[in-house]
Design the sequence.
């Protein structure tokens, strides 16, 4: 489980921009890609801080 | 450019050809002069620059078990074949040892005498500017230089100590002194433990002797045996005599022991002396030392003399027996007293026996330890055999000089060509140097650069067991130039030089009105994000320095990371969408060359995984998997028999190369990119069929995985490979990665926002294997580059540097949706696969310090940036967003 948690950032960094690329408006899609990737990075950091030690 | 076209009446490429042809025809004198001047200058520089003389000694360590076992047959002597050469590097390169080397070889004086002309000039200028250097400073500098130049490598029981030095005789002396220092350190280390043990045993033996004496005193103080009860008056005299007798016996026993030890030690020294005499002359320092120690030992032993005197005094002072033998008396009270006395005496005797047994045991151990020490000393000279002694080199390292001359010749030819063209432009009908920039084959040079960076080997490839003849070219590009060329100041790679030169030409061309500017052909977000990535990197460097980061390690850590946006700018400026087929051919050709090398090393030369863990390099996992991804994407988009045949014919050697290269991660990269590509492909009949087949095969796959999870059968080989990646218990390497991941996560938690910056090693909270012997920078460049970058950059640095890949993936995704040409769609898919494979490579195998990653990602991103703009996936400047 801890391995999956550590790996999750790669999945997020690939899946989020590819999903955002489907937005019909390119600029909005790019902003989404960057914002959601950053949000995923924040979540990942929080997971490393609080979740990883318990796994 | 338009002016050139107007003048020559043709397209730019024709203009270039005309220009070069005219220059060759009319200005060949200029070309030859520049060529000759360049080569002559290089030859003069090579003569004036310091030369490098290489000296090396090869030692082989033998198993010490035989002699140690003879010395003490009861002790088990484990033998680790690498133990005798372990920590050799640390032993030789210890600061105090290097200082000793400098003094022992009189290096300072010899260094000043043997300076090359240019180096002398530099010294003189430095002395004028900052005053003469003190002797201590000069010594410290030499110590630093020795630390860099001395190399100590061990492979099993074989140890190599060598140096490249500007003076041949000093090189030999230094290597010999380093060898002697290593042997002295080892000898001291091996005997120090025994000497300590002997000292401890000696102390315990003394305690045991005192215990025996105390027991003797106690026994002597007791009354005589019950069968010989004495009258009160003579009892005291008899007791004193008995005590004296026992004391005398104990002294004599100790004396015998000492004399026996002394005789044994004398015999050992005589044996050593005779051995030394068999090897050396009588005046040899070792023979003289052994003889002196023997004489000293034979001459007198104060302890022995004191013991003898003490024993003689005790014998003389032995009191005469007091009175006649006592008459036996009887009575019930007397019987009780006698029984009590007998019990006390028995107890005292038991104590004495126990004390004597302990003393015997300790003396036995002491004897064994002394013998082992002696054997260790004698056996040490057989421990290390000099397989190849240091010899005075006959010539400096010439191959590098020849290589430098060849490079100078090539550079001279190029410069001559440019000078000829420039002269033609100045004196001919054309009048602007812009034409020269326009005529430069920038596209071909960029593709050539890309090919060389992907196909050429780097130092350490195939564990340096096999070097193809073109390896020096790869070393020039991949490693600092002073590794190959005899100029220490060249502390940058050939790739740095080429990138800077090509970027300069591209900027020059753009500034002088060349082809359409990069900004007009590339999706703007990619340029902005490349710049932002570079800024984030510089910020992390600054943070690292502000916290006392190491400059050299900073360069190691962020060299490739900084290279990526710059290389992206170069490929964006020099390649067009029309170059996609050429780009694909370059990548595939490089991958196939590396695949051929891997297959040759593994199956042609027969190196197994123990001898050569990776047939080429770790970074080539990415090259092979991206090559396979490219072939699969081309087939998926073209869907022709030709593309299928190409995928099968070229994909097979790449798959075999992955197997030969022995990196598990490459299989993960191939599987992950295939899965992603499959998900991205439009829903066709083929995809539906593949999906249904996968659903049917899924339970079978799960069954196969479950059945083979704990099996070592050959048929379950793939399951074992999967298990070795995910299960820490199955593989030491995987377990070590878990420890590293844990440590990195702890470091991330310490500084979550900005990280520790570059130039720092991560803190170890949980101790894993120490890899410094094989990879000194293991804590600066962790295997898991994803967590490593997060620990170094924190959240902001991590996102700041890698948002470039987020933007690249976004544009690739859009380009794939909008592009119609199969080649462009395949390029977009390959770019997605390359970024995904890069992330996986970073997660498992130090991807961010790999050149392959830079030179696969940079052209891929440059291409998707252009395809996105050309296909309308990203609007141009005038279009609404």
Sequence:
């Amino acid at each position: 489980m801890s391995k999956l948690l550590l790996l999750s950032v790669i999945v997020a960094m690939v899946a989020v921009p590819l999903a955002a690329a489907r937005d019909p408006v390119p600029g909005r899609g790019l902003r989404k890609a960057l914002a959601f990737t950053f949000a995923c990075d924040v979540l990942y950091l929080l997971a490393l801080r609080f979740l990883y030690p318990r796994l | 450019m338009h002016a050139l076209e107007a003048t020559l009446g043709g397209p730019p490429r024709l203009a270039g050809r005309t220009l070069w042809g005219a220059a060759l025809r009319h200005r060949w004198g200029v070309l030859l002069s520049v060529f000759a001047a360049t080569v002559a200058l290089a030859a003069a520089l090579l003569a004036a620059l310091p030369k490098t003389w290489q000296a090396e000694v090869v030692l082989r360590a033998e198993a010490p078990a035989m002699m140690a076992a003879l010395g003490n047959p009861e002790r088990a002597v484990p033998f680790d074949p690498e133990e005798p050469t372990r920590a050799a590097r640390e032993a030789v390169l210890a600061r105090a040892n290097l200082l000793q080397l400098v003094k022992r070889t009189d290096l300072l004086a010899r260094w000043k005498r043997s300076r090359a002309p240019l180096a002398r000039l530099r010294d003189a200028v430095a002395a004028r500017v900052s005053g003469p250097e003190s002797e201590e400073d000069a010594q410290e500098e030499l110590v630093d230089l020795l630390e860099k130049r001395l190399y100590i490598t061990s492979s099993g029981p074989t140890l190599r100590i060598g140096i490249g030095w500007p003076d041949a005789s000093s090189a030999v002396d230094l290597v010999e002194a380093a060898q002697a220092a290593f042997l002295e350190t080892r000898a001291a280390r091996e005997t120090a433990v025994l000497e300590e043990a002997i000292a401890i045993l000696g102390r315990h033996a003394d305690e045991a002797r005192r215990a025996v004496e105390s027991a003797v005193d106690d026994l002597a103080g007791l009354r005589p045996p019950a069968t010989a009860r004495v009258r009160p008056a003579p009892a005291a005299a008899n007791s004193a005599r008995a005590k004296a007798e026992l004391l005398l016996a104990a002294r004599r026993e100790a004396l015998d022991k000492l004399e026996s030890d002394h005789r044994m030690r004398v015999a050992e020294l005589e044996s050593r002396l005779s051995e030394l005499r068999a090897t050396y002359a009588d005046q040899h320092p070792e023979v003289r030392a052994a003889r002196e120690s023997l004489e000293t030992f034979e001459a007198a032993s104060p302890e022995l003399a004191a013991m003898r005197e003490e024993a003689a005094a005790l014998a003389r002072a032995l009191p005469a027996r007091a009175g006649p033998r006592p008459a036996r008396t009887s009575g019930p009270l007397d019987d009780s007293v006698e029984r009590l006395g007998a019990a006390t005496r028995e107890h005292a005797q038991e104590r004495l026996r126990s004390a004597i047994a302990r003393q015997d045991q300790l003396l036995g151990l002491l004897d064994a330890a002394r013998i082992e020490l002696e054997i260790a000393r004698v056996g040490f000279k057989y421990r290390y055999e000099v397989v190849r002694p240091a010899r005075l080199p006959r010539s400096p390292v010439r191959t590098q000089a020849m290589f430098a001359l060849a490079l100078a010749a090539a550079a001279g030819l190029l410069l001559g060509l440019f000078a000829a063209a420039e002269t033609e432009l100045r004196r001919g009908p054309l009048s602007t140097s812009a034409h020269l920039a326009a005529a430069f084959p920038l596209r071909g040079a960029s593709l050539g650069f890309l090919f060389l960076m992907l196909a050429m080997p780097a130092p350490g490839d195939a564990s340096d067991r096999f070097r193809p003849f073109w390896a020096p070219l790869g070393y020039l590009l991949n490693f600092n130039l002073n590794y190959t060329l005899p100029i220490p100041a060249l502390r940058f790679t050939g790739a740095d030089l080429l990138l800077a030169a090509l970027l300069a030409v591209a900027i020059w061309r753009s500034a002088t009105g060349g082809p359409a500017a990069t900004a007009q052909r590339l999706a703007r977000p990619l340029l902005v994000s490349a710049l932002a990535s570079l800024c984030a990197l510089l910020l992390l460097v600054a943070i690292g320095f502000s916290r006392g980061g190491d400059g050299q390690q900073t360069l190691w850590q962020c060299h490739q990371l900084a290279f990526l946006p710059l290389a992206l700018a170069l490929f964006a400026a020099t390649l067009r969408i029309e170059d996609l087929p050429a780009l694909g051919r370059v990548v595939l050709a490089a991958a196939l060359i590396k695949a051929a090398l891997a297959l040759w090393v593994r199956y042609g030369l027969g190196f197994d995984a123990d001898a050569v863990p990776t047939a080429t390099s770790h970074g080539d996992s990415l090259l092979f998997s991206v090559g396979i991804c490219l072939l699969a994407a081309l087939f998926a988009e073209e869907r022709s028999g030709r593309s299928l045949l190409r995928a099968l014919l070229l994909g097979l050697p790449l798959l075999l190369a992955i197997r030969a290269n022995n990196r598990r991660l490459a299989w993960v990269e191939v599987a992950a990119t295939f899965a992603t590509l499959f998900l991205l492909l439009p829903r066709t009949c083929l995809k539906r069929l593949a999906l249904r087949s996968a659903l049917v095969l899924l339970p079978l796959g799960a069954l196969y995985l479950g059945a083979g999870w704990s099996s070592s059968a050959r048929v379950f080989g793939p399951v074992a490979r999967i298990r070795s990646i995910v299960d820490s218990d199955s593989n030491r390497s995987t377990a070590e990665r878990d420890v590293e991941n844990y440590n990195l996560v702890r470091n991330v938690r310490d500084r979550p926002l900005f990280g520790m910056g570059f130039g720092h090693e991560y803190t170890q909270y949980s101790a894993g294997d120490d890899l410094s012997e094989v990879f000194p920078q293991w804590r600066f460049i962790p295997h898991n580059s994803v967590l490593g970058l997060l620990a170094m950059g924190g959240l902001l640095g991590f996102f700041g540097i890698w948002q470039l890949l987020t933007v690249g993936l976004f544009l690739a995704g859009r380009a794939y949706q909008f592009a119609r040409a199969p080649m462009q769609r395949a390029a977009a898919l390959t770019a997605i696969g390359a970024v995904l494979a890069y992330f996986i490579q970073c997660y498992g195998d130090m991807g961010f310090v790999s050149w392959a990653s830079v030179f696969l990602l940079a052209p891929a991103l440059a291409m998707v940036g252009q395809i996105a703009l050309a296909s309308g996936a990203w609007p141009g400047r005038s279009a609404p967003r």
About this structure: Residues 9 and 41 of chain A are 7 Å apart (CA to CA).
